[in-house]
Structures are given as C-alpha cells and as structure tokens.
Amino acid sequence: MKGKAIIFFGILLMISAIVIFDLSIRQSNVSASVVTADVADVVPTTMLESEVFSLQDLAYEFKELESIGSEKTLADYYKNRAYDGAPPRIPHPLLNEKGIGGKSCLQCHSNGGYVDRFKAFAPITPHPDFLNCNQCHVPKKTNNLFVASDFKRSAPKHIGSGVLDGSPPPIPHDFQVRGSCLSCHGAPSAAKEIRVNHPERVNCLQCHAPTNNRQITWERKSTEEEGGME
Question: Quick check: pTM over 0.70?
C-alpha cells in the first residue's frame, strides 16, 4: 500500500511538472507576442536608434576637421547614385575584382580619413557590419545601357527647415542601412549642404524627427496673415 502511494504521488508530481511547464511556455509566448505588438506600434526608426551613436567617439575629431571643409556637394552625392536612395557606385578601381569587399573596403571606409591619392576624405559607411560590399556597390565601367530603357531618375527628397523658423529640420529618409547619422552628416566627407556644425551632439533623434516619408502639407502662417498678435 505504501509503495502504491509513493507511485501515485510520483505520477501526480510528474503531471504537475508538465502542467507548470506548459503554462510557462504559453506565458512566454504571450509575453513575446505582446512585446512584438508594442514594438510594431513604435516608429520603426527607434528600433535602430543605437546606430546613431556608432561614431560618437569620433564626433569631436569631426568637429576639429570642420575648418577643412568639404568640396563634395549634394550634386556629387546624387550623381554617384542611379536614383535617390540607391547604393553609391564605387568611383575608383577595386583592389581585387573577385573579392566581396569586407576588410579591403573597411580599411578606408570604416572610420574615414584623408586619401592623398584622391585629395579627399573617404566616405564612412553607415553599415560596417555588412561585409559583402560588392553585393550592393559596384564600380562604373560604362555609360552604355545593356538594354534600352525609359527609366527616369526620381527627384531627390526635399531638404528644408522644420515647420518653424529655426526649428530642427526633419529626417526625409528612412533608417534602413543608414542609421549612423554622422557617417553622412558629420564626417569631413559629407556633402557640404547636409554637413552639420554640431557633430558632438550625437543624440540626433532628440531634435530631428523622421517624417516617415509623408509629405508635410501644413505651412506656418505669418503674423500678418493671422491678423497680428492680440
């Protein structure tokens, strides 16, 4: 009788353990789904906010190099791209035509630096963790089209001030593969029209908000249009 009781309690404990384990799994799944739902409700760029700080250790060095200026313009920036948002072409010969980039490219494009051969600063990649560089970036070897096309380049996004005079301008693009702000806006290789004069303020999203590619139609009226101050 005593042995049967021990077996009974053993079976009962096993069933209890299985039930508890099943409930814990269900609860973890519920928690995960809740977190996913919460994240989906947030602006997607906040998920990549950590990339904004990736070059913070170089911010003051960029500040000191500001006096050197940059000869690169937005016209040069767009000229090296097939369309707005496209990966830039490689404007120089490759070290290895059969390579995929990786460490060869990152020698110059990881943190930037002055290249005497080109008399310019090397652009800093905003995504140094992507090592297969030639998957997206290719050198230009011809001006001829492989197949005739009626493709027309889209107009670049408007770059302007915020809704109020003196307010921080909004971010007109998404953060996919370009979440490191200083690589394009703070480094000495940045186009002069979009290069900031305060790279040491590395928390860019504290003041600059993404527009989510929605056109801003609201316009601030002047004091005269509003009938003056009362």
Answer: no
